[in-house]
């Protein structure tokens, strides 16, 4: 937990996002600590729900991908996406 926290807290993208985005929602007439507490709690709940959704989705996908049929479809879709990306790259060079 602490290693993940340190990694997330030292991420320059997150620091820049919070420094640029959140101050516009602060009101100088109210307690700064209370406002920051509400923002931190809100962000933590939303982030937890997002990560929980990712985890549950990955759990369901892993169950499906363990089957031969799931692996076959995954390979087909991946090949089609890579082929489409390569075709788009060739067309865009023109």
Give the secondary structure arrangement, pairings included.
Layout: H1 2-9, H2 12-21, H3 32-65, H4 68-92
Short note summarizing the structure:
This protein has 94 residues and is mainly alpha-helical. Helices cover 82% and strands 0% of the residues. The protein has one domain.
Textual characterization of the structure:
The protein has 94 residues and is an all-alpha fold. It has one domain. The protein has four helices and no strands. It has helices at 2-9, 12-21, 32-65, 68-92.
Q: Helical segment tally?
A: 4
Describe the global form.
Answer: elongated
Structural class: mainly alpha
| Uncertain stretches of 5 or more adjacent residues | none
Number of strands: 0
Regarding quaternary structure, what we see is single chain
Helix content: over 70%
Number of folding domains? 1
Strand content: under 5%
- End-to-end CA span: 49 Å
Biggest sheet character:
none
Computed over alpha carbons, the radius of gyration is 21 Å
Mean pLDDT: 89
Order of helical and strand elements: HHHH
Features:
4 helices, mainly alpha, 94 residues
